[in-house]
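Sequence only, no structure available. Ideas?
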Amino acid sequence: MQQFLSIVKKCYNFAKENIRIIVPAVFALVSVIAVIVSVNSCDLTVAYTFSYGDKTLCVRDTVDFNAAKTIIKMASATGDVENYIDEPVFTKTVAMRSQLDNVNSVAETIIENTDGIVVATILRVNGEYVACVEGETSLDEYLEKSRTRYDKDGSVSAFVDKITTEKAYYPKSQVKTLDEIIEVIDKLSVKTVSTVSGKYNVAYSTTVIKDKAKAVGYRATKTAGSYGVVSYTDEVTYVNGKESSRERLESKTIKQPSNEVIVVGTAAISGGNSFRWPLAGGYFYTMTSYYGDGRGHKGWDIAGSTGTPICASMSGVVTEASSGWNGGYGTKVVLDHGNGVKTVYAHCQKLYVKVGDVVTGGQVIATMGNTGRSTGPHLHFEININGSAVNPEIYLGKR
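Reply:
I predicted one. Tokens follow.
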């Protein structure tokens, strides 16, 4: 007990002698404790402020800024966007925890206040990068417009290639305007599938009856033919507006075709069946061009005076009697002599026959002229056998 009292007495004497030192120390200690208690009770924390652009941010730690940069890099289409981000100057401070900016808001502020980076829409074709456009809607809107440019009622359209878009941060210097890539978009092929319904005619067949009692050139319809009708539904695929394939989904016969029956004459026409000189008055006319003649000439050119009578070289039926250019033949007459034999009389001035007339050999059918591709009055005379021109010399001899 006496020892304890001795210790207390020594402490008292020390305090009495050093009171000027002890009182400020105790006061400082109490103040620190008070601050600590105040900080904990008011939700305050040590923080860092920095300015970026025209905004001031406050973060828990300087590493939050780097974390924001990482977010931007991961959300970008190219890794070099971080080269456009400025490093700020941090100031240590005390702030309310509830007022601290989170990492995502820091990233958004960096993007909003960095001139070299923009939010862009990336266009990819079959996974390959094509271009990017500033903004988040213009590219998608134009792609939709381009995709539906060939749409028809009830049709379904899609790009032939795989087209994708994605939003990303991108260096402003590498971003294109929509006008700059519209030409690229418009070259993308579009496939449109439509259901098409309609009707079509089915041709009828023709039966020919030969009548020996009728002359060559006679032709009459005994039974008129009529077309059949079929309705259909097709699935049609178009690429860039042009049909590329068609699949028949449904077909229904509405009407069967009705066959035609015609009667043709086979009896020889009176007046002879051998060829004769096609101009009146004999052979004193000038031959200006022969068959072949080094230029594929199909007949004879016989020069004379305008108005000279032209005669049928053999009996036959007029199958053509027409004026005009006629492929260079000019006004012409064509006679059918039966058995695949025809004669042609071209560059005429005036016609004396019409289609369907039956003429005899030597009958005047036209007059010589200078129509069509012609350099002077003359008759172009052809003999055709089964659709092919032959040399008139074979039947009329040399002239």
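The longest strand covers residues 242-255.
Hope that gets you unstuck.
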